Amino acid sequence: GRAESPAGAELRTVLVRLSGRQMKWGCAWTAPALLEGVWVLLAMLELLEHHDLPRLRQLAETFFHPPEKNDFNLCRYQWLKPGVNERSKTLPKN
Question: What is the CA radius of gyration of the chain?
């Protein structure tokens, strides 16, 4: 059965948040959202066994604020900056 305790309600809230799903008004959770949240939680716990939180924050900072283009190549795609690559030249300017 479903845990009706405050801890059970908190866990459901956390799992729905981790799932990234939006719930309809008046619906606090769904089984698919809880299952998705469990999957994300397990992946997070596994990751935290191998990396400490400060290092993960550094990695996130690198993702959101990459170094200059010649300093570091995160992947084969260049960061999209207006006027830098061919794709951005074809986009309409607002």
Answer: 20
* Residue 1, both tokens: 């059965």
pLDDT digits (tens, 9 = 90+) for 54-82: 999 999 999 888 877 655 555 555 555 55
Beta-carbon contacts of 20 under 8 Å, excluding residues fewer than 6 positions away, are 36, 40
67, 69, 74, 80 alpha-carbon torsion, rounded to 10°: 100
Phi, psi of 63 (to 5 degrees): -65, -45
Q: What is the DSSP string of the chain?
A: ----SHHHHHHHHHHHHHHTPPPPTT----HHHHHHHHHHHHHHHHHHHHS-HHHHHHHHHHHHSPPPTTT--SSSSPP--TTTSHHHHHSPP-
